[in-house]
Specification:
It contains 19 helices and twelve strands. By secondary structure, the protein is of the alpha/beta class. Among the domains are: 134 residues, Aspartate Aminotransferase, domain 1; 226 residues, Type I PLP-dependent aspartate aminotransferase-like (Major domain) (Aspartate Aminotransferase, domain 2). The strands form two sheets. A seven-stranded mixed beta sheet has the order 2-8-7-6-5-3-4, with helices on both faces. Keywords: Aminotransferase, Pyridoxal phosphate, Transferase. Its EC number is 2.6.1.9.
């Protein structure tokens, strides 16, 4: 596998090769330890897999029931009215239909986030207004600043992932409900709760019940992630009957497969095991964060998902770390250099059992420090933050339009001028106290004073009468919160932003409180 690792990653349309491709490449029929795909490792139980295996012939031979039958069973389990639910072949199918049916000219989303929320609207010519989450604030989402940004841009559709992917940031329920009501004049508000089952910050974190009562809110939920069955491809959305019915009417007759049907009908007998699996993932998350935090120079961000977002030490380049972990240690990780708003210094690591975490920590120690603690094998590249979605069409859109969609291709020349000024900002700021393993040439001076006195560039249509304090002087070409850049926030600006007012890191884990597992823990 060693000679083909880079080509495997470059040759896939997704962010990483599939497990099937990696298994084929291994030569021995076994895949790596997977810290890349965010999957529940404790569910289904071995007994459930045995039961599915015994029925495999029937499952793959015959047509499934219609989506209405499968949806009704799921709704009975989750205590939701079927007319408010639409089930899809994975949440990405539902995102696609939401974009085609309900998104008009523009969509706002905090970045970094799940790539389909940026790529899908751009593929259909929409303007994507990207709100940068601040590394200095732990990538926490400031809902008030986000609302200002949306109004300044005039965005019609609003998206929040809660918890966010890849950083696991969490917004509390009461704040989200207030935000939804503040956005009542927008066309659509989507709250993507794909990873909410793993959160433990509140007992009842979901806004599903509130969404059904509002005319313009959709909540998106994933089943594959929670149930450890990504390959089955099933998810659902919840909204008022009119919105849910509009999406449901466009879905194909048999868009859900027989495996999905079989699993949904199994669930009522396995509620207790499912609730136990979620509790175990939450315990593992705390243990894994503790172990990773012991690595010198590695920053671990608070997370409410089943994954942890980490920043590598200065001098480490994520693609090199990813490739060496795979070839030398048979460990697959998610390098985040192709996520808008992130860079190659960041990895997303899925929460796994402690035996696997020990193997990961050992591999990272050897790759990052070696036997002599000499630092990462390759210095961080100056252009390591360049965006590549893995989809050629989207790459062309981003480079040609700075993320404002197909409609702006003809005006790309006009947009290129503001983007050019953001060049120097692509480097990541140095962490405060990193025991630098060895001096590594880096494009930035080491101790940088906190407020960088850079003259503010060309006039921007700023001042709202601001009672709030003005943000710190930003690097050239960056856009302060709530102020639209000419032609929209560019991908280069999003990647390089680091001078804005840090958002308060609220809503982090509080041990001892556990969410309702979507009604599952009531079953057993």
């Amino acid at each position: 596998m060693a000679g083909n690792v880079t080509s495997l990653f470059r040759g896939t349309a997704a962010h990483s090769p599939s497990m099937a491709a990696l298994t084929r490449e291994s030569g021995d029929g076994s895949g790596p330890v997977d810290f890349c795909i965010p999957c529940n490792p404790y569910f289904p139980t071995p007994a459930m897999f045995d039961e599915m295996a015994a029925r495999l012939r029937d499952i793959v031979t015959y047509y499934p029931s219609g989506a209405d039958t499968i949806t009704a069973e799921l709704c009975g389990l989750l205590q939701l009215p079927p007319q408010c639910v639409a089930m899809g072949n994975g949440s990405t199918e539902l995102i696609t239909w939401i974009d085609h049916l309900l998104v008009r000219e523009s969509l706002a989303v905090p970045v970094p986030t799940f790539g389909r929320w940026t790529d899908q609207p751009m593929e259909t010519g929409k303007r994507v207004d990207m709100f940068p989450l601040q590394e200095a604030g732990g990538f926490a989402l400031d809902l008030a600043q986000y609302a200002e940004f949306i109004r300044a841009r005039g965005t019609r559709t609003v998206v929040i992932c809660n918890p966010n992917n890849p950083d696991g940031g969490y917004a509390r329920k009461h704040a989200l409900v207030q935000f939804m009501d503040a956005m009542a004049d927008r066309d659509l508000v989507v709250i993507d709760e794909s990873f909410l089952e793993f959160a433990d910050a509140e007992a009842e974190p979901s806004v599903v019940q509130e969404a059904m009562l509002r005319p313009n809110v959709i909540v998106l939920r994933s089943l594959g992630k929670n149930f450890g069955l990504h390959g089955i491809r099933f998810g659902y959305l919840v909204a008022n009957p009119a919105l849910a019915g509009r999406v449901r009417s466009m879905l194909p007759k048999w868009n859900l497969n027989s495996f999905a049907e079989y699993v949904v009908f199994m669930l009522k007998e396995h509620g207790a095991e499912y609730a136990q699996s979620l509790a175990q993932v939450r315990r593992d998350r705390l243990e894994m964060a503790s172990r990773l935090s012991e690595l010198p120079g590695l920053t671990v961000y608070p997370s409410q998902g089943n994954f942890l977002f980490v920043r590598l030490p200065v001098g480490a380049e994520g693609t090199v770390v990813r490739d060496r972990l795979l070839t030398e240690h048979r460990i697959l990780v998610r390098e985040c250099g192709n996520k808008i708003g992130s860079s190659s210094r960041f990895l997303r690591l899925v929460v796994r059992p402690q035996v696997d975490v020990r193997r990961l920590v050992s591999g990272l120690e050897q790759v990052l420090y070696g036997t002599s603690r000499r630092g990462a094998a390759v210095p961080e590249l100056g252009n390591g933050t360049s965006y590549s979605s893995g989809t050629a069409a989207v790459d062309r859109l981003v480079s040609a339009t700075n993320g404002v969609g197909l409609a702006a291709v003809s005006g790309a020349a006009a947009l290129s001028a503001p983007a050019a000024s953001a060049g120097p900002a692509v480097s990541q700021p140095l962490p405060q106290a990193v025991p630098a393993p060895a001096p590594v040439p880096t494009p930035m001076p080491t101790p940088v004073p906190q407020p960088v006195p850079v003259p503010t560039p060309t006039p921007m249509p700023t001042p709202a009468p601001a009672p709030a304090p003005q943000p710190m002087p930003a690097a050239a070409g960056l856009t302060p919160p709530g102020v639209p850049a000419r032609g929209g926030l560019t991908a280069a600006q999003v990647r390089g932003t680091n001078g804005l007012t840090p958002a308060p890191a609220t809503g982090w884990p509080t041990p001892g409180s556990w969410p309702n597992a979507a009604g599952m823990d009531q079953a057993g």
